Amino acid sequence: MTAPIRVLHVDDDQEFASLAAASLEAEEETLAVESESDAERALQRLDGDEFDCVVSDYEMPQMSGLEFLRAVRELDDTMPVIFFTGHGSEEVASEAISAGVTDYIQKRGYEQYTLLANRIVNYVDRRRAEEERLRGYEAIERAREGISILDESGRFVYTNEAFVSLVGYDREELLGSHWERLYREEDRQQVYDEQLPAAADGGWTGQTVYQRKDGDLVLTNHSLSYTEDGELISVAQDITDDERRRKELLEAKRFESLVTAVTEYAVFMLDTDGYIVTWNEGAEDIEGYTEREALGEHVSLFYTPEDVAAGVPERLLDEALESGDVEEEGWRVRRDGQRFWAHVVVTPVFDDDGTHQGFAFVTRDMTERRARENELEAQRASLAAANRMNEVLRDILRRIVHDSSRRDIEQDVCDRLTGDGPYLFAASVDCTDDEGFDVRLASGLGADAAGYVFEHVTSRDVARRACEQGSVEVQHVDSAAVDLGHDIATAIRSVVCVPLTYRETTYSLVLLCSTTASGLTDDERSALADIGTAAGYGIHAVETEHLLQADGVVELVLETTDPDDPLVELGNGDGTARLDRLVPLDDRQYLVYVTLEGTAPTDRVAAVAPNPAVEEVTVVHDHEDEGGVVALTVTDALVSDLASRGTKVHTMEASDGRLRVMVDVSPNADVGRLLDGVRSAFPDSGLVSKRQVARPVKRTRAVAETVESRLTQRQLSALQAAYHGGYFERPRRQTAEDVAETMGISASTFHQHLRIALETVLTELFD
Q1: 178 φψ region: left (φ > 0), alpha (ψ -120 to 50), beta (else)
Q2: What is the DSSP annotation of 32-97?
Q3: Interval 645-650 mean pLDDT
Q4: pTM here?
Q5: 428 and which of 160, 199, 410, 519 could share a cystine (Cβ 3.0–4.6 Å)?
Q6: Cβ pair 581, 641 in contact under 8 A
Q7: Residue 742 or residue 249, greater confidence
């Protein structure tokens, strides 16, 4: 598991620092961000505590970012320091880089936190790798073999004590000098012609004769290999003495492992048949086997059963023997059965006569890096899909503004969702009583053909769940199992069901045929849900407009005797309960003002308060036994359900355990579907009467004067500020928070004033 990365974020804006810390930790789980608003205290913390990285603002009141950077460099000249500031320019960036800052990032949006988190991880990983390399040098210093490192020009940049002792020079004499200093003149050309080219091509192993400072010759087992940075690593063992040479030959495989120990973790040797003959601690840590358990086993022990059956281990050894070395990545299996992603390098080993002796096997555990790469790729794909869906949402909103009918809105949704992306075709459907589909319109395919496909492909359970719960649902399709005489069926991998809803009402279901079988990401699902909500809101708006513009309305009278309905219960006893006013609080809750006649309000409040559908109930006016006014906040009641379905509740009266509600609906409304939905939610309800009635038309000025007289100054101001600020435009020019700030009030207070003002306007228009 990757070690946590401690980050000290220095910014005098404490609120921004807290936001930045939360955002960075959300972007990268290995980050632990601590904030400090005072630069002096930050320096004290750096002096007394251990951090992996510093993120600092450029302009701070205590000291400038450059002064703070210089102070940090005095404490730790290798600490990654990143300027993260909104006050930036090319001149500022150039000055910061010249002063030694690690990186410079401007605050320009939330996406910068992704960039900043990645930069922090990269710089800390780089620093840790350098520290690991230095620790490797310490291990090399203790090695018995003579180890040296040369730069690209062939000059020594490092030697361990064993190498100094081997060649007889002081370390200071060797550093900066060329390797030719240690060779006889007749041996140097062989190094250029054979050894260095072989080292550049994967590594060279053989024997070398060094000429010591005192002139003596030393015979060594010698290995050369290049690092990724172009440095040449030389490992030499003195085999001048025959007895010592015999012993060193027995340890040749161990010395070969040392060559790659600087950069790799698990190194072991195989014989010519692929059986393990050496083992090191890194191999034990990665593979999980002890040396006793591993020695003598075949290398296939670490491969998956599928790879063993396919002959992968043997193929790798054959390819290495043929080409000189081979690299591969794939799944390996530890001793406990756990799989990990490994990077493997296999190199054949030969003796001086060219006889094949076996293989060097180097394994690195890449599981965490691969997981991070996969996660980043998934995040990029998710972000791209979310951006695409958000663009679709914005386009649909622009179209809905100009639509004048429910059919236009549904057609726009279907057309836009099939315009690009993975959706083959779309259709707006109604679910019929026999659990079939009534295709209203389609895009990308004819309505008749779409209906035929959906009848044979779409799950009724999935579609029903989308309709009833108002949620986006996905059905995966096995196209091979679909018996459908239509060519397009072979390309269908999933069906996405998007309900077009407004509050409790689902107007229709948009079915999308997709070419991908993968599930929706959270962002895609959210965007589709927003599209369904926006379309449902648009349908509600155009039907309400039809209701306002119609010469008449359809008047429905419904009745229920459900004892669990709080308004039925309120009308029990000797009195009568009549609706005074209905105010929506959110998608489900309504505030209902009820006038009571012939009964004591306190008694009725006490009786209805325990009802689970009642959030709160209070007495507004109390005339004792003669009656009064009470206010209830209700969720699941017939009156609130009818209002949430887009009807205009005209009157309500409850008495003797019976509640009767009169509502107005548009002449274009689907009354049958409305009643089906009501009966489904309230089985004890039923239709008493239905008739077409004329509605009087009010003059606009008279409506405005009446509205202004009924609003408080604050309510009127909230309505005017929202209108002139573009709050009602699509897309909005100002959010509720923006408008509230201009009025000097909180967003919640603004919402309260605006809700009452809008209810007053709509009541005056609809009544």
Answers
A1: beta
A2: EEEEES-HHHHHHHHHHS--SEEEE-S--SSS-HHHHHHHHHHH-TTS-EEEEESS--HHHHHHHH
A3: 82
A4: 0.37
A5: 410
A6: no
A7: 742
